[in-house]
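Notes, Module 5: Reading structure tokens.

Key idea: the token line is not a picture. It is a compressed description, and you learn to read it the same way you learned to read a sequence, by spotting repeated patterns. We will look at two proteins. The first is printed below with its tokens.
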Amino acid sequence: MALGYRSYYVQKVCVISFLKKGLGLYQTNRSHNNIVSPINESMGGKEMSQITEIAPDVFKITTFFSEENIQFNQFLVKDEEPLLYHTGMKGLFPTVKEAVARLIDPTTIRWIGFSHFEADECGALREWQRIAPDATAICSFVSKMVSVDDVVAERPARALEDGEVFVTGKFRFKFLQTPHVPHAWDAGHLFEENNGTLLCSDLFHQNGDMEAVTNSDIVSRFKEMLIEYQKGPFANYLPYTTKTKQILGRLADLKPKTIAPMHGSTYVGDGESAIYDLAQAMKDVLAGSG
């Protein structure tokens, strides 16, 4: 089921109801498949949150909204200078904070990253910075100058240059500026060089309550989402421009081992081939549809 016209309004209502029902609580015992199991409480048995270790010390926090048939993922990197990637919307802040608290002291977060200016990417940035006094947003120069510092930041963001590498301790993150990929002028991506993890925002978006991690094809799910969205108000959700193939090629050249999208399953496998397959799916569905 694709997102409807009232999508973001419904999501906010779902979040509020979700929190009132006492969700967002987590057990801390890690199972053999690296999932920190959610306490079995839900609104009508549908909405749940879970924490999954998708790579060493890289944790995915997932909340599924059944009415909209979509997952929202945030990623916490445990290191000397902890990194949170995606803040989630403002209404989701208490739930994500509770999940982070099961892994680290939330006040110790040092870096908050995101691809581009959008509610699910950085909507709760100010809330995070108010509880974590040393937390600094990291984003593209365009994002910082055009939107972030004025609208959502408690204090100035750090603008990353294309190709810049910054270190959080044992992890090395490379920033790639990717205008309009997945969408928005200010978009960029982070790639962790040691483990080969690509934090890829809305690329590889899959609708539904998907498994946390898979080594099976996720491009077909992504293509299904694109086809469905082209039928409604979210048509051209991801633009296909004269630069899209080239930008995706840069991401493929990183040869990621783990692909971590905001919506849906994390993919572990041949990331280079997956990105080229994604590029072809975007071309098939979107080229000439603007």
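Here is the second protein, with the sequence above and the tokens below, as before.
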Amino acid sequence: MPMTTITRSSPLPIRRKTCLIAFSHPTTLVAALLLPLASASLAQTLPAAGVAVGPQYDTTHVYIAPADLDAFVNSFVATFGGKPSKRSVANVLPVTSSTQMQYLLTPVGALSIFAYQTPIPFPFGQERTGYLVTDMDQAIKAARAAGAEVVVEPFKDAIGMDAVIEWPGGLKMQIYWHFTPSTNTNPPLETVPENRVYVSRDEADNFVASFVRFANGKVVSDDPHADAAEIGQARETYRRIEIRSLFGNMLVLVTDGHLPYPFGYEITGYRVPDLGATLDKAKAAGVKILFAPYPAQDRTTAIVEFPGGYIAEIHSSPAH
């Protein structure tokens, strides 16, 4: 599934991630068929893949009200570019349900978008992202060995298998696998999005150790005194951990939980070459700026809300 975002005014859950809003498992699977294989250059710069396939197969799950679907998709494309798939209606869960679903591939990341026409069965909508794996049985075994809980055991959809796992600290994500590997060659991502994970101090080390083991990832930075003004806590510090793997980028934000709105609701961060120009396009498309651009150590960052309630972080690197 893709990411989810939660708006306080909407009756539907919109939360993680990525951006974010959640998507059903089969949708992510169908979407992944459209994505290219991981590039050789990426494979050379990342740790061994394990069960990962590549970040262009990872989607943020976005759950949104049917009435907001057009406005959301149009505003996201206007902001970042990209092309949406054809929309369809199906049951993509192991229990009875019905959703409109659409896949959106952009230069900065992919979304699996779900607009349910029925109540959303538990615990779907809580998973923030969908990761394609090379083998479902191996992935489940690896997740459990790394300390994850399988909260939705593997089930079939039209083209493969899906499951939902939960990590120490409460992060839920979907993993999915295709019966027939994709051979399509869509353009690779221009920038790899960032899975933004807020965890408590109690579970931070457990979460990082578990996920890094599962993903064959690497901690590339761990700053115990990062500037917390970038998450709305002026004159404070927090622990900021960056992880890289063939699943993509992850930013772990270890906080005391005293977060002003909207921090914690954004599940995906998107890197763009020019933040100001991107925000201008976003505002013209009806996107709200919830947190104005702030110059942090390695980026200028902003938080936005798309029509329908999907909340995301957008950033650009400082000019040199």
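Summary for the second protein:
- The helical segments are 25-33, 40-45, 69-80, 136-145, 204-215, 275-284.
- The chain has six helices and 17 strands.
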